[in-house]
Amino acid sequence: MARKAVKKAAKKAPAKKTSARKAPARKAAKKAAPAPSKPVKVTTPAGKTITASALLLAIADHNGVKKTEAKAFIEGYFDVVRAHVLKGVKVKIGDLGMILIRARKARMGRNPQTGEPVKIKASKKLAFRQSAVMKAAVMGR
Question: Domain spans of the chain?
Fold first, then answer.
């Protein structure tokens, strides 16, 4: 009789599950609107090249930091990007584009003066691929 009571109690008690429980549902967090960035002041005329020191000065002015702090940050950023690119990693830079190394296969070329075939060795080239956002901005869309 004791066995029947134990069996009934075992049937009534729910078995414990050892599987992981689901996390409780989270409330959707409101996304904060990005802080409006102040417009960048461009002093170099179109078609001209901006020097590194002028670029650093513009970055320092835009972010409200000293030129030495901006220089340390930018040089560190370039070092990290350079290290990743040299390892063969594609580096995406925001809405600007992507920096990568492209492998070029060996191929046959032709000497334009003599017309004789010439072997061109395989090589690696540094490449920049613009993003769709940047392309649209350049195209004026």
Answer: 49-89, 90-141
